[in-house]
Amino acid sequence: MRWHGRCPTSMKAISRENIYTIPNWLTASRLVAAPFVGYCILHDHYAWALGLFAYAGITDLLDGWIARRWNLGTVVGTVIDPMADKILMTVLTVALATKGALPFWLAGLILGRDFALGIAAIYYRWISLPPPKTMARYWDFSLPSAEVRPTTISKYNTALQLGLMGLTTVAPVVPSLDLGTPLGVMQYVVAVTTVWSGASYVYSKDAVKILSQPQQGEAEENEQTKK
């Protein structure tokens, strides 16, 4: 069979991006480090946990700076960067709550919000993936389909959550410091910002940008192809 005229949109080459950049490698290293942080906390190796936590914070700042400085930002980076933060946060929350260093009600609030956002991310990735929709293409992150844009309050919330987890991890390392009152205040502040940031994703129109929406011309072309 020979195609006549212009090819349908589904047959066009889909643009890919280079995901093997230094910022993305640094982000990937944070993903790898996260379970080791949890392991160290559960086995009372708080100094090691604090060191890995510091590494995660430094690389988080570094990958963003490199991406901006040398224009190495990628769509997949906008997805895996907050993903790395959330995985680290989940590991820290579960580990610290298990050790009794974090209240269960706050752990449930943090994990519940992140679980809801995770389900939303899976949904948007699927509906925005250009056809054909297959699991192989779904996990091929060189095919950008949706871009996540954290809301302002979400950025503050992430910083506050990381600050709370860091301070909670410091407490056993430096027992001479009385951190009871600061930790108590931060726990309630984080609870408020966690709820607030979760609601911001629901009401913000710019939090998720679909990249694969067909243009008007392409839509008309598809209609002509069907006829």
From TrEMBL:
Primary localization: membrane
A cellular component annotation (GO) from this entry: mitochondrion
PROSITE patterns: CDP_ALCOHOL_P_TRANSF
Gene Ontology biological process: cardiolipin biosynthetic process
Places the protein is found: Membrane
Topology term for the membrane: Multi-pass membrane protein
Regions that span the bilayer: 21-39, 45-62, 74-98
GO molecular function terms listed in the Swiss-Prot or TrEMBL record: cardiolipin synthase (CMP-forming); CDP-diacylglycerol-glycerol-3-phosphate 3-phosphatidyltransferase activity
Coiled coil feature spans: none
Keywords: Lipid biosynthesis, Lipid metabolism, Membrane, Phospholipid biosynthesis, Phospholipid metabolism, Transferase, Transmembrane, Transmembrane helix
Top-rank taxon, per record: Eukaryota
Record Pfam families: CDP-OH_P_transf
Alphabetical list of InterPro entries matching this protein: CDP-alcohol_PTase-I, CDP-OH_P_trans, CDP-OH_PTrfase_TM_dom, CDP_ALCOHOL_P_TRANSF_CS, Phosphatidylglycerol_P_synth
Family per similarity comment: Belongs to the CDP-alcohol phosphatidyltransferase class-I family.
PANTHER family xrefs: CARDIOLIPIN SYNTHASE (CMP-FORMING), CDP-DIACYLGLYCEROL--GLYCEROL-3-PHOSPHATE 3-PHOSPHATIDYLTRANSFERASE-RELATED
Name of the protein this chain belongs to: Cardiolipin synthase
Organism expressing this protein natively: Lasiosphaeria miniovina
